[in-house]
Amino acid sequence: MYSRPDLHMHSVYSDGSDTPLQVLQKARENRLDIFSLTDHDSFGGCKEIREALRPGDPAFVNGIEFSCKDDLGKYHILGYRFQEEGSSVERAAIMTHAERIEKAIRRFAYIEEKTGVPFTEEEKSRILAENNPGRPHFARLMLEKKLAPDFESAFQLVSGLGGNSFYLTPQEAIRYILESGGIPVLAHGLLGDGSQRLDWREMEDRILRLKKDGLQGMECYYPTFSDEEENRLLYLAGLYDLAVTAGSDYHGAGRSPLGSTNDPQPEVMERFYRML
Fold first, then answer.
1. How far does CA 241 lie from the centroid of its chain?
2. Which residues contact 181 (CB under 8 A, 6 or more apart)?
3. Using CA atoms, how far apart are residues 69 and 91, in angstroms rounded to an integer?
4. Which pTM was predicted?
5. Deepest of 22, 25, 61, 162, by most Cβ within 10 A of its Cβ?
C-alpha cells in the first residue's frame, strides 16, 4: 500500500512553473511512491512523464483538473486513470483550450487598455503558444516588461478581465471522466475553485449534488486544511461513500511544496488505490 502519495500537481502544461520532467525528478527526490500530474484542462504532460519513467520510480497515474462552473458556484473536478486518445476527456480538453486562447486574446487588449503599453507580436505569439495560457503567464510577462513590482501585483493587474467565459459544468466534467473510464474526484473541497472558503452546509450540499451525478472521490488531505477540517471532510467522505485522495496542489516555487499532503493514512486511501 502506498504511504507517500501526491495526486494533485501542475506543470507548464497549465499554470505550473516546472516542466513535466522536473515534476518527475522532484517526485523522485521527495521519495513519493505514487503521484499524478493534474494540469488544468490538459493531460499533455502525462505522456512526457510516462515516457521518462524508469524502474524504481514512483507509480504514476494520469490526471487532469477541470475548472467548472454552474449557477451555484465554481468547482474543480479532478479526473484519474482515464483513456486519453479519442475520449470524452480529450474532446473536453480541446474545447477548454480553444476558450483559453480566445480569452488570452481578449486579455491582451484589456491589459493594453489598462496600462497604455502595447504588446509586441513576439510577446503575443509566445503567450498564445503556451499549452494553456492563463493569468500566471501574463503576470510573468508583466514582470518582464516592468509593469509591476512583484508577481502578486502583476497577477492582480491581469485579473480584472470581465465578460462571459466558457466553463464546463461539474456535471459535464464528471460525465466526461466517467465516459473515458476514469475516476472523478472533487478537488480541495472547502476551497471551491481554490480561491473560495465554503461553509459546511454548502460543502455537504455540493457533495450530495455531485454524488448523484457520479462523483466517486474527494480530496480530503490538502496542505492548507486544519486537522479539524481534514477530519470533518474524512467524515463526510465516509458518510457519502466517497474514496479519499491526497494532493499538494503543487505549482512550483512560492506555493505548497510537492509532497505536502498532511501525512495521509494509507488505510484511509486504500479504496482509491483499489479503484486505480
1. 23
2. 81, 82, 83, 87
3. 18
4. 0.88
5. 61
CA distances from 129 to 68, 106, 147 (A): 24, 15, 22
User: For position 10, what pLDDT does the model report?
Assistant: 96
Measure the CA–CA gap between 221 and 33, rounded to whole angstroms.
16
Treating both helix axes as pointing N-terminal to C-terminal, what angle do 44-52 and 20-29 enclose, rounded to 10 degrees? 50
The grid coordinates listed for 257 are 511544496
| C-alpha span between 260 and 66 (Å, rounded) | 22
Tell me how far apart the alpha carbons of residues 168 and 188 are, in angstroms, rounded to a whole number.
18
Helix, strand, coil percent content, the chain, rounded in steps of 5? 40, 15, 40
Cell of 9: 500537481
Q: Which three cell numbers stand for residue 17?
A: 512553473
Quote the DSSP letter at residue 57.
P
**107 three-state secondary structure:** helix
The pLDDT tens digits of the residues spanning 68-86 come to 999 888 899 999 999 999 9
Q: Is the dihedral of CA 102, 69, 17, 3 positive or negative?
A: negative
CA distance 273 to 276: 5
pLDDT in tens, 138-173: 888 888 888 889 888 888 888 776 655 678 999 999
Nearest to 151 by CA among 13, 15, 45, 2: 15
Asked if residues 246 and 15 have their Cβ atoms less than 8 Å apart, the reply is: no
End-to-end CA distance of the chain: 12
CB 5 within 8 A of CB 269: yes
